[in-house]
Design a protein that fits this description.
Length: 68
C-alpha cells in the first residue's frame, strides 16, 4: 500500500509541476516570488541580509538579464 501511495503522490506532484510551467505569471509576480524565495533562503543562513539588499540585487538582475 505504501508503494502505491508514493507512486500516486509522485504522479500528482508531476502534474502540479507541469501545470505550473504552463501558467505564466505576470512579470511583477515572478519578481516578487523570486525576491521572497531569495530572502527566505538567504536570511536563514545569513541573518545580516536585509530585504532591501535582495530588492537591489533583483533590480540589478532585471537590468542585466531582462525579464525573461
Amino acid at each position: 500500500m505504501v508503494r502505491d501511495r508514493k507512486t500516486q503522490d509522485e504522479l500528482i506532484e508531476r502534474e502540479l509541476i507541469e501545470r505550473s510551467r504552463d501558467s505564466a505569471a505576470p512579470r511583477e509576480q515572478r519578481r516578487a516570488r523570486r525576491r521572497s524565495f531569495v530572502f527566505a533562503h538567504t536570511a536563514s543562513t545569513n541573518a545580516d541580509i536585509a530585504r532591501d539588499i535582495v530588492v537591489r540585487v533583483d533590480e540589478d538582475f532585471e537590468r542585466i538579464f531582462g525579464s525573461e
